[in-house]
Specification:
Layout lengths: L27 H7 L6 E5 L4 E2 L4 H11 L4 E5 L7 H4 L7 E4 L6 H5 L25 H12 L5 E3 L1 H5 L5 E3 L4 E3 L2 H5 L3 E3 L4 H12 L13 E5 L7 E4 H4 L46 E4 L3 H6 L1 H13 L8 E6 L2 E5 L8 H8 L6 E2 L9 H6 L2 E3 L1 E2 L10 H5 L4 E2 L2 H14 L6 E2 L1 E3 L13 H6 L19 H11 L6 E2 L7 H4 L3 H10 L4 E7 L3 H7 L4 H18 L4 E8 L6 H14 L1 E3 L3 E2 L7 H8 L20 H11 L7 H10 L38 E3 L28
């Protein structure tokens, strides 16, 4: 079992004598009030500064402060000059740079590459407060302000660009952000463990060039170290015929496959190296170079597949990719935090409020999470379009019941405006709390990209009893009127625990419960690694049963994705027919956005399926590309919008399905056109400004969004600055 140095084991830095800051200083005046002559570490972020554990910059800042360091914050600086970057003076140890809780390109542009007018992480929700590719711009300004200061980059933007990656906005494969930012170190994933070690080692006098052995970090080097074994990525996954091999690192106890469902013929089968005597701790995987994957989309898909095989902290090796004359070296992923460490992180002395400099101006993202509590991290779902697993990892990190209770009591007693309702008790997935592999040795050896696809692994513990116990305890706290669950639910797991579904439906649904089938058709679902509609139907029946027993009126709100790789026009038509039969009307839809490093993005770019072995003549995935096709797929989801009817009529006739055009119940769209509609104004949604799925006869659902795909302000919880 891998062990990591505890966050509690470091001797506090001498500046601990200054004590805890009411808020981390953002101005020179605040530094003077604290008696500081300088900052040891200055963190730069593209988000407004909210001292709350759902804002990554606050988490990293408070963690470093607890280690004794003086930490300053530069939030949403004016990037057109260096003045804002120089206002706190020269940092003694390093700069920490992040784009914020969201990737800056996802934050600023829609899936149709249109500029957004708003920004949920900015006071007033105004757009334009951060530059494109914020990490690169901020890093440059830091260098200009004070040259020679070590520069550490991280957060979701840097984390997902740590290697050569397809960039949707420029439609090309860009090199690692390490090179473009000219950073000394990149921290990927949740970064507490990494930044604490970086800070203490720099404080002890080690030059940053020697910090080469920290898990969860990457750097640029001229040459790979000696006495390391190089493993060509094509030995792990040959771009040709794929044969099944045993795990070369598994002990006899670990040679047992993770699940009988995982075989060489399965969609998620994981071929690995032939058995060799190689020290995993002293070996690295040689990826195809940036120059090669930039020119060869098949090898890009191959590199993506191999990258995702090397994400389990228990067996991942270092990854090396050549960029010109230099090497980008990525150490294995960080060891997940223990429950004690995660409790420590979430119970630091956050004010749980925006900085006073914003004069109480509304920050939409803060309003969304103001009365919510994060109970865990990570996701083992492995959905190909989502970046949570790539960033936070698939091993669930849990808080203790006592810690969650203490946070709710803190919200009750200290947060202004609290009315007794906790808006969410959840995380990346609402019901993965304390779910893990039954055998730690099998978990450490497993190389499956998902624990729940193509089916739930037989080694996965699916008992929801700890979560039920937590729900019951927190809703009985004095002063708490209601505890809601608003995070996305993994319903194929939930149906394994009827007691959980009953508890959830009876006590923790605020009228609507959001779940994400994403599609109804097997072809796109298999490219998403999502369960079929059978699981949805089972959960829906349970939901309706327990709702009726509770004597309530509650409704499921399903979410769907348009234009995902593997989706054809016929698939979208069938989804539209299902929506109409079910009485659903999606007012605002999610169109697939290829985010860096996601498996679905590799599909989008290459037309190949990295879930299977990659070879030149392997499966070709249909890719909805081009504005017209993407608009058509979005139009199918909004079949009820008269502005989409001309586009849909043309498509249905071309598809030989003109029988779906007419004025009867069996028809998808009418043959007539209302006056003043059908002018092809993409995005016309009438007067509604909410994301709602209308069910016949139901009121509007509350404004929501998921994974930053089409709307803004998604609850991507627990993101750290250098994470």
């Amino acid at each position: 079992m891998l062990q990591a140095k505890s966050l509690f084991s470091y001797r506090p830095y001498w500046a601990q004598r200054f004590g805890i800051a009411p808020v981390l200083p953002c101005t020179r005046e605040e530094m003077d009030d604290r008696g500081w002559d300088s900052c040891d570490i200055i963190l730069v972020t593209g988000d407004a500064y909210v001292d709350h554990p759902s804002f990554g910059m606050a988490v990293i800042g408070r963690v470093l402060e607890a280690q004794g360091f003086r930490v300053g914050i530069i939030a949403q600086p004016d990037w057109t000059c260096v003045d804002d970057f120089a206002r706190l003076g020269r940092p003694n140890l390093f700069w920490g740079v992040t784009a914020g809780n969201m990737d800056s390109m996802v934050n600023r542009y829609t899936s149709d590459r249109k500029v957004r007018s708003d920004d949920a992480y900015t006071p007033g929700g105004k757009g334009g407060s951060r530059p494109d590719r914020s990490v690169l711009v901020y890093a440059q300004r830091c260098r200009e302000a004070f040259s020679g200061v070590p520069l550490v980059i991280g957060g979701i933007e840097a984390s997902l660009r740590r290697i050569a990656h397809y960039d949707y906005w420029s439609d090309k494969v860009r090199r690692s952000v390490l090179l473009d930012a000219k950073a000394d170190l990149l921290v990927y994933g949740n970064g507490e463990r990494q930044v604490v070690e970086i800070a203490h080692r720099l404080a002890a006098g080690e030059p940053i060039e020697q910090l080469r052995d920290i898990r969860g970090t990457g750097f640029v080097t001229g040459n790979v170290p000696e006495n390391w074994a190089e493993i060509d990525s094509q030995e792990i996954d040959v771009p040709g015929k794929v044969d099944s091999h045993n795990d070369p690192y598994a002990s006899q106890a670990q040679d047992k496959p993770c699940d009988k469902a995982s075989s060489a013929d399965d969609e998620v089968a994981v071929p690995v190296l032939r058995r060799q005597r190689i020290d995993r701790e002293r070996s690295f995987v040689r990826m195809p170079s940036h120059e090669v994957v930039k020119q060869d989309a098949v090898l890009y898909a191959h590199a993506s597949r191999v990258m995702h095989l090397e994400t389990n902290p228990g067996n991942a090796r270092a990854i090396v990719q050549r960029h010109g004359k230099r090497e980008v070296w990525l150490n294995p992923p960080p060891i997940p935090l223990t429950t004690k460490e995660l409790d420590y992180v979430f119970e630091l002395p956050y004010t749980r409020r925006p900085h006073a400099m914003y004069n109480d101006e509304r920050i939409p993202a803060y309003e969304m999470i103001r009365f919510s509590v994060n109970i865990m991290r990570g996701c083992f779902g492995g959905c190909t379009f989502c970046s949570i697993t790539e960033h936070e990892g698939r091993i669930i990190q849990n808080r203790s019941e006592d810690s969650v209770v203490r946070e709710i009591e803190t919200i009750r007693d200290t947060v202004p405006g609290f009315t007794g309702v906790i808006s969410d008790v959840g995380g990346p997935t609402a019901n993965m709390y304390r779910l893990a592999c039954k055998n730690s040795k099998i978990e450490a050896a497993c190389r499956r990209p998902s624990c729940v696809y193509p089916g739930i692994c037989s080694n996965l513990e699916t008992d929801h009893a700890p979560l039920v116990s937590l729900y019951r305890r927190v809703r009985e706290l004095p002063g708490i009127k209601k505890v809601l669950v608003a995070s996305g639910l993994r319903y194929d797991l939930a149906v394994k625990s009827p007691e959980y579904v009953k508890e959830l439906v009876t006590h923790h649904v605020g009228g609507y419960l959001k779940i994400a089938p994403e599609h109804t058709e097997e072809a796109p679902l298999s490219k998403m690694m999502k369960p079929g509609m059978e699981a949805y139907d089972t959960f829906k029946a349970m939901f309706e049963k327990y709702t009726k027993e509770a004597g309530k009126k509650q409704y499921l709100i399903p979410y769907f994705i348009a234009a995902h790789p593997g989706t054809t026009d016929e698939d979208m038509m069938n989804l539209a027919l299902w929506l109409k039969r079910s009485g659903f009307r999606a007012d605002q839809v999610q169109t697939f956005l290829p985010s860096p490093m996601a498996t679905a993005t590799a599909m989008y770019h290459s037309g190949k399926n990295p879930l299977r072995g990659i070879r030149r003549n392997s499966e070709t995935v249909p890719i909805p590309k081009g504005l017209r096709m993407r608009r058509l797929h979005k139009a199918f989801l909004r079949y009820h919008d008269a502005n989409n009817w001309p586009l849909l009529r043309d498509a249905l006739k071309r598809m030989g399905r003109a029988d779906l055009i007419g004025n009867g119940k069996k028809h998808l769209i009418p043959s007539w056109q209302p006056r003043g509609t059908g002018d092809a104004q993409e995005g016309r949604r009438g007067k509604s400004k909410t994301f709602r799925t209308q069910h016949t006869g139901l009121p509007d659902a509350p404004a929501t969004d998921r994974r930053g795909k089409e709307g803004k302000g998604s609850k991507r919880r627990g993101r750290s600055v250098v994470r």
